[in-house]
Amino acid sequence: MIQSRARIATSLPAAALCAAAALLCAAAPAASQQEPAPPAAGYADPEGVPQREVYRDVDPVYRPPAIDTLATIRKRGFLRVGVALTDPMVMHDEKGELVGFSIDLARQLAEDLGVGLQLVETSWSHIIPDLLDRQFDVILSGLWVTPERALVINFSEASAIEGVHLIASKALAGNLKTREAYDSAGVRLAVYGGTVQERVARRLFPRATLLTVEGDDEQMDPVLDGRAHAALVATFAPKAIVRAAPDNLYLPLAEPLQTTSAAAGVRKGDPDFLNYLDSLLTVYRDNGWLAERAAFWAEPQNWLK
């Protein structure tokens, strides 16, 4: 009897453990069916985010293999510079030689590169196409920076800051001495089409009639032949233009209507050559060379005989 009681006593804890385990197993399914705890603030379930519609882009456009312009120039032994005539950037002297601010700049660039210089004369309507056709390495001709041109070529830092000046006819506009006087329905202004001058004219002189000059035609011709009262001309030497026809032209305003940047133009896809030009222009600006050359060519008495 004593032995039997001892056996029952030792078996009680095991029975209790089995009962507890059975209760836990029965409770587990019920616990798994409970609602999950709410997510913490800021949590976003990636499975709950609606998927975006796939964006269908055009096929990417890849650049052709780049040409190392600097290495090519040094291998060739000379720098080819495209220029087009415009006073006082690029002109012919009495001997027919090319002179001007941009010619000085081209010579200085070639000297610092340690190569020779070849000037390639072209026209304004062909100067950018000729650059793209590799007729020369760089445009140095007082090329105005415009958004339209920047889609096609790259511009360096500014090589010169020019003013957009009103140059007027003495015969037709001799009594028009204020900017407001040119904003009139009876006034005709000559501008190169698609340039900064045209944008300035449309902004400042909305009442005036604009005569657009296209291609390689002379902008001052409509003023000189009596078709326009004045022309908007981007230059840092307006006195030189007036001095070319002092009996017919004058400057009605002492200050320019606004300023515009002229810069070197290069083909896209060669950042090393563009960086080199920018670096040299920074040096020329810091040491005063650009300012000294601009001051010289801005005064026609220095070069007009």
In short:
The protein contains eleven helices and eleven strands.
Written description of the protein model:
With 305 residues, the chain is an alpha/beta fold. It has one domain: Periplasmic binding protein-like II (D-Maltodextrin-Binding Protein, domain 2, 3-Layer(aba) Sandwich), CATH 3.40.190. The chain contains 11 helices and 11 strands. Strands 1, 4, 5, 6, 7, 8, 9, 10 and 11 form a 9-stranded mixed β-sheet that branches.
User: How many strand elements?
Assistant: 11
Name given to the CATH architecture? 3-Layer(aba) Sandwich
Tally of individual helices: 11
What coarse outline follows from CA principal-axis ratios?
globular
Summing up helix and strand content along with how strands pair, one would put the structural category as alpha/beta
Whole-number radius of gyration? 38 Å
Proportion of residues in helical segments: 25-40%
The termini sit apart by 145 Å
Weakly predicted, low-confidence segments: 1-12, 14-32
Give the mean pLDDT. 86
Task: Characterize the largest beta sheet: strand count, sense, and whether it forms a barrel.
Answer: 9 strands, mixed
Layout of strands and helices, then pairs:
Blueprint: H1 2-32, H2 69-76, E1 78-83, E2 91-92, E3 98-99, H3 101-113, E4 116-121, H4 127-132, E5 138-144, H5 147-150, E6 154-169, H6 170-173, E7 188-192, H7 196-204, E8 209-213, H8 221-224, E9 230-235, H9 238-244, E10 249-250, E11 258-266, H10 271-286, H11 289-298
